[in-house]
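Why do we bother with holo predictions? Because pocket geometry can differ from the apo form. Keep that in mind while you read this record for 1,3-dihydroxyacetonephosphate.
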Amino acid sequence: MQKDILSKDNSKYLFDNLTKITNIITGTYFSLEEISNIAEQVNKINELKKENDALILAHYYCSPKILFGVADFCGDSYALAKKAKEAKQKNIIFCGVTFMAETAKILNPNKKVILPPMTAGCSLANGITVDEVLALRKQYPNAKTLCYINSSAEVKAVCDTCVTSGNVFKIVENTKQDQIIFVPDLYMAKNIEFYLKNKGIKKEIIAAGATCCVHDKFTLTQLKEIKAKCPEAKIISHPECLPEVCTNSDFVGSTAGMLKFVKESSAKTFAVFSEWGLINMLEAQNPEKTFLSCGRICASMKRNNLDNIENTLKNLKDLQGVTLNEDLIQKAKQAIDNMFKETENDR
Ligand code: 13P
Ligand code: SF4
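The structure, written out:
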């Protein structure tokens, strides 16, 4: 799917994909006039990107204008972290939320990393403090401490291993300790418990934190209504959803996992319990399949737009970007490096 959109003219790629996003029910639809206006700004941004030696990384929840217009790489948190680590360009423009830009800086500290909206929070990353993690570590000295990547650099620095939605179940399964402290996603912690129970693995999960203010809104009632109206629809959910939603879904996985599941599935209709940007990507990649209208919006992700990307590129020299002190970078990097090691070992 990924294309080298640093090439001279991206308009065709943009046009081909935006015209496939035709979710008339929600009004997510791009007219030809709109696409040509977008293309003008997109071409300007792609020129500025080359002039300024910048790489644009974008999470799947960003607007399709970003995903198909200016992003050099779109991915889930894991793939984006890997790309940031390998980036050769002097500047990384990270279209996502704060914890993602921080992760990029931790993995490639000599680059200037900029989040176009400057700040864009995440209810999970904001939902746990360093003191809370340290208190749990004191209370459970034999436990392994895992933090979801949706956490601050400071929290990562006091945890053993970082996880993403794409590797969390495997990393937990392979953990030797009987007790695991898991922060900050309370629903993901419950989903881990169900996963372990199904596999007959006994471990105690000690959870603290919050929930994702986007995914915690999907309900079992909504899921049952969809199943009743459209029994052939496959329900696919992100593991940040409520446990009763996940246990009643046909597939639970990361954003990249959901894209793979839909691509490989012979089913024709899907209800996606995740963010609209991902559903737009699914529509573009699978024009022959139908996606029921049930997405939600992550307001923080949607704060990334073509205007603030263009302004960032125009003012790069004056922008400081993400700053983290050296000691914090080293400590937080340890947890992320452990994640890469534990994920690669499993392959
Ligand atoms: P993914 O790593 O699955 O893309 O999830 C990131 C996220 O913030 C989901 O809400
Ligand atoms: Fe955070 Fe939820 Fe937005 Fe993902 S969708 S960035 S978890 S608030």
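Confidence is low (pLDDT under 50) at residues 1-8.
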